[in-house]
Structures are given as structure tokens and as C-alpha cells.
Amino acid sequence: MQQTQARCNLIARTSGEHCHDAPQLMLGWRGAMDYEFTHGGGRLVLGQAAILPSGEPHSYLGRQDECEVFVIDLDAADPCLASLEESCTLDLRESLFAEPRTLSLPPTLLPMVEFATAQVKAANDEKRVRLINHQLAMLFVSQFSQLVDDRDMQAMQRQRLSAEALNRFIDQRLVSPPDNAELADAMHLGQSQLHLLCQRQFGMSPQQYVMNRRVYWARHWLRHTQRPIGAIAMDLGFADVSSFSRAFRRRVGYPPTQERVRAD
Question: I need a surface site. Which of 75, 192, 193, 243 has the fewest CB within 10 A?
């Protein structure tokens, strides 16, 4: 299992291409490193950072012998991350790690990078290393989440999602409900922008919105048709009646059969 860890990675003049099974934060520290994502890229120097979701292929090229990058590898199942998400009402997969991106760090964060690298290099026993890894991971994840939210919010001050367009697209895909990437493409947005707009306008994540739309149609068909519940479940993209019934009950508070009884 990938462990949450902070490390200083000496790149020097090496190059390569790979991807990771877990999310990663990369911060410029010494020298310069060029990198490319599937879409986009940049140069990592002090004051610049990159966010890599899990499974994102990327290439790198060190420009100087002293090129060194500060890296934080994140275990998606780390209970510390789960606690951070719960306490700060975050969904890191749909916000910070929704897509690869670059960040320019404000000057106030540069001393933090220096402090972090010094702490990593000074750690000399396993217990201290584990403690520092989690402290730095929480510190930078929270700071980066705030930076991403602030930047996206500024860019979206005049943007609004069209509920009509969103509903129309979801309704065309009820049998195979769209994921966040497909929703974002249809709305001509980045995934993190889509997430923020959904939260701001509707008070829910994109996938919660999709599920609510599916339940809307379930209630409509249960009330106004005699279609079998199994057929409704299949037409709404559920694997079976049981999963449909569980999702319906979570949203509505009672099973689909009771919806039909109420209609009568």
C-alpha cells in the first residue's frame, strides 16, 4: 500500500516518464525541473507547485545537477486525510485531486517549503519520520486546497451552471450515468470548477446531483406508470433492484414500493 510520506527527490539531470497509484504534490525546491501532464505542463522552480491525481502519466526533465523537488506522496486511504476531509467538509477527489494542475505559491508559503525540507532532511528515526510525514501532508493538503478554492472561486465569480443544460445531459445518460469528467466536458468546465459550482449553486457534489436526478425520474415513473421496479432500476443505470432500492431509500426515506402506494 502507498504510504503518506514527504521526501526530497534529487532529480539532477535525469529524465523519465511514469505515473503513480496515489495522488502527489510536487513543489519546486532547488534548480528547475520541466514536466508534462497528459494536457499541459510547466517548469517546477521554487515558488511553483504541481498537483498530480492518481494514475496521471507525466514526464520530467531535470535542468541542473542540483535540481531537487519536494514531494508529498499521499495514501488515499490514510485516516488523517479522511479526518481532514470530514472536519473541513472536503472531497479531495472532486476538488484538489480532480485533475492535474499547476500552482504559483504566494510568498508567505515559501518559508513553509524551506521549513518542510529542513524537517524531512533532519528526521533520523522511524517514529519521527512518520509524525513529520503526516504533519506535512496535512499542512500542504490544507494549504493547497485553500489556494485551489480561492483561485477557482475568483475565476468563477461570474460563472453559473445551467441546471437546464445539466439536467438535459444527465437525462440523455440515465442508463449509463455520467461521471465527473463527462459532466465537466459537457459543461465546458474543469472538474474542480464543476465541483465548486455544484457546491455553490446546489449545495451538493456533482455525483450527488446526478443521483438526485435519477431518483427524480424514479419517483416520476413510479407515480405515473405501471412499469416494473426492475425495469426502472435498469433504465436508471442501477446494477439490480437492491442497489436501486437502497439509493432510493437514502434519498427519499422509504422504499420504491411505498412511492407507488402513495401514488395510488
Answer: 243
3-state DSSP assignment of residue 103: strand
The model's pTM is 0.59
SS3 of 246, please? helix
The answer to whether 224 touches 263, Cβ cutoff 8 Å, is yes
For the four alpha carbons of 24, 200, 164 and 239, in that order, the dihedral sign comes to positive
Taking only Cα atoms into account, the Rg of the chain, rounded to an integer number of angstroms, comes to: 22
CB-CB contact of 216 with 178 (8 Å)? no
- DSSP state letter for 46: B
- Domain end, chosen from 127, 155, 183, is at 155
Domain span at residue 53? Answer: 5-155
Do residue 148 and residue 170 come from a single domain?
A: no
pLDDT of 259 higher than 80? yes
Which set of grid coordinates corresponds to residue 137? 501532508
Q: Are residues 15 and 102 in the same domain?
A: yes
Nearest to 215 by CA among 180, 186, 253: 253
The confidence band for 28, taking pLDDT boundaries of 50, 70 and 90, is very high
